[in-house]
Amino acid sequence: MEQTKNQNGQSTIEFILTFSLGLSLIFFVINSSINYATGYLVHYATFMASRVYLTDDSHTNSPFEDIDRVRKSFEKYNLGIFKIDPSKFVVNSVNDLGGDSKKNLTVGAYTTFELNMDLIGQIAGKKKMELVSESFLGKEPTRFECAKRVCNAIRGQDKCDEKDIDITLYDDGC
């Protein structure tokens, strides 16, 4: 019996196939890690900007309207490093809802952004994932409204003087 099959180079081909599979897996894990970290940072920036909108007020009975301050809070996190476009950040204002109290749960902020699905663009192509980060926390009462409620509970009056509101005890933030 004469052996006619030559197996020289078989280990090289196996190494190349295994190495490319392993390298692809490593790139996939790295890209997933970057996408998760970026997503968490965008969620945190959106949450913090939403909190600025929902908790700040001008000590009046009108909703907070300093949207530029909210936008600056979002942009403070410098998401441009991750190619996140800050112009897609949107605030759902109380005034935009037409005063409908049932829609107050959609008051807050959201942003849309895109991330690469594939780090090197060879496995999934140049496709991008379209993601949304939302922070709809519901509109809290203004401090003025809260102070009036607590003052009413303490004094039993519907109307409190401004000097009373300045010294009113806040029990649980209304």
- The SSE string, one letter per element, is HHEEEHH
Question: Major sheet: size, sense and barrel closure?
Answer: 3 strands, antiparallel
- Structural class of the secondary structure composition? alpha+beta
Overall pLDDT, averaged?
76
Overall geometry comes to rod-shaped
Integer tally of domains: 2
How many E-type strands? 3
Number of contiguous helices: 4
Distance between the termini: 94 Å
Q: What's the arrangement of strands in the largest beta sheet?
A: 1-2-3
- Assign a percent range to the helix content: 40-55%
What would you note in describing this structure?
It is a single chain. With 174 residues, the chain is α+β, with helices and mostly antiparallel strands. The protein has two domains: 131 residues, no CATH class; 34 residues, no CATH class. Helices cover 42% and strands 13% of the residues. It contains four helices and three strands. The protein has a three-stranded antiparallel beta sheet with strand order 1-2-3. It is rod-shaped, with a radius of gyration of 28 Å. It starts with 9 loop residues before the first helix and ends in an 8-residue tail after the last helix. The mean pLDDT is 76.
What would you say about this model in short?
The chain has 174 residues and is α+β, with helices and mostly antiparallel strands. The protein has four helices and three strands. The mean pLDDT is 76.
